[in-house]
Design goal:
Length: 368
């Protein structure tokens, strides 16, 4: 199927950096106009500092499965840094090409094709959040609340190199361990101090020891700071760490270990506190997901390639809520989160054809 790049160009020429509310809302307005033309109803969730979240619904036919199409409106580059749209015979270039204005455009054009074929849409809805690139802290409660209405979800993040759809994503948590000791003059009163830096160094070794690559678990103490100067025993230090996991059991193991690390006395006189939280629960492959893939392979007449990724998306939230979820329905692209972001033109046509067939299989408009 031929893909129309004109609407995507208009979208990419709007800077929709997460904290650029006016830009995110301007792009959201383009999406709203496109989806309302297809008969979907828009419910807006206003935000003061972020762009508004947008939820589009079609008529509901009871007894038929409901499908949610999931996307985000925000991109990662502030105004004046990396902007615009360009193309050559093979690629399009610019922020959002593959992450994920390109995917959103595929969803809209596939919906338009299905609407034109059937005369309307039913049981297919769309959620576009405005803060995915900052971790979806604001939109997460909304996403989880809406998830309870759906049996299936398609997330339109970028496809893999061979047009893989994504069946698994790691969970992620970010934490800080603060160490509090006692300052003392390093020359005159060395023994009177309680060295927070020393405690932090020992804790870093313990944190790294929690990594289990065979289980897909990583604990990375990625940033440290501490102390006042070379002539002072350090009274304070902090460690920022990231946890990623592929299994709930590993999540629980590491969280329990963090509590033990914080409670342990690494240096006499130094105490520790833990702050932070889990940002994404794991998206793990499921039997229901495999059954859906089998159905889709029969529908499309191909075997959809699959992959798991270490990165996270809002698909994690849907899967956590028990919704059968497949991610990676956008175009293949690379360079996302860099000034080299691009997407393969031929990939748009392939994905548009595939997604149109999938959506048509869910469309219950004839039963309205």
């Amino acid at each position: 199927m031929a893909f129309d790049f004109r609407s995507l160009q208009a979208a990419m020429e709007i800077n929709s950096y997460t904290l650029n509310k006016s830009g995110v809302d301007a792009y959201g307005q383009l999406m709203q106009e496109s989806l309302e033309r297809l008969g979907l109803h828009c419910e807006r969730f206003p935000r003061e500092a972020l762009g508004d979240h947008l939820y589009f619904t079609s008529p509901v036919v009871q007894g038929q499965p409901r499908l949610l199409l999931l996307g985000h409106l925000d991109t990662v580059f502030p105004p004046g840094t990396f902007e615009g749209f360009s193309e050559d015979d093979t690629w399009i270039y610019g922020p959002g090409a593959c992450d994920m204005k390109g995917g959103n455009a595929i969803a809209v054009q596939a919906l338009a094709a299905v609407q034109a074929q059937a005369g309307g849409l039913a049981n297919i809805d769309v959620l576009l959040v405005s803060d995915e690139e900052k971790g979806s802290d604001d939109s997460r409660p909304l996403t989880r609340q809406l998830a309870t209405a759906y049996s299936y979800c398609m997330d339109f993040e970028a496809a893999g190199l061979n047009h893989e759809v994504v069946i698994g994503r790691k969970g992620i948590g970010t934490f800080t361990i603060d160490c509090t000791g006692k300052a003392a003059h390093a020359g005159n009163h060395y023994a009177d101090g309680h060295n927070a830096n020393l405690a932090a160094a020992r804790i870093v070794e313990a944190l790294i020891g929690l990594t289990d690559l065979k289980q897909g678990t990583t604990v990375n103490p990625g940033k440290m700071k501490g102390g006042i100067g070379a002539n002072t025993i350090s009274p304070s230090a902090s460690i920022q760490l990231e946890l990623r996991f592929t299994q709930i059991e590993e999540r629980d193991r590491v969280l329990a270990a963090l509590d033990d690390i914080v409670a342990h006395t690494w240096v006499p006189g130094v105490t520790q506190t833990l702050s932070g939280n889990l940002q994404r629960e794991v998206m793990a492959p499921t039997e229901a997901q495999q059954a859906w893939l089998k159905t889709l392979n029969q529908l499309l007449g191909i075997t959809l390639p699959t992959e798991s990724r270490g990165g996270v998306s809002d698909a994690n939230e849907m899967a956590h809520m028990g919704v059968t979820t497949l991610d990676g329905w956008g175009p293949f692209g690379d360079g996302d989160h860099s000034v080299n972001e691009r997407a393969l033109k031929s990939s748009f046509e392939r994905r548009l054809e595939e997604v149109t067939k999938v959506l048509a299989s869910f469309n219950a408009y004839a039963l309205v």
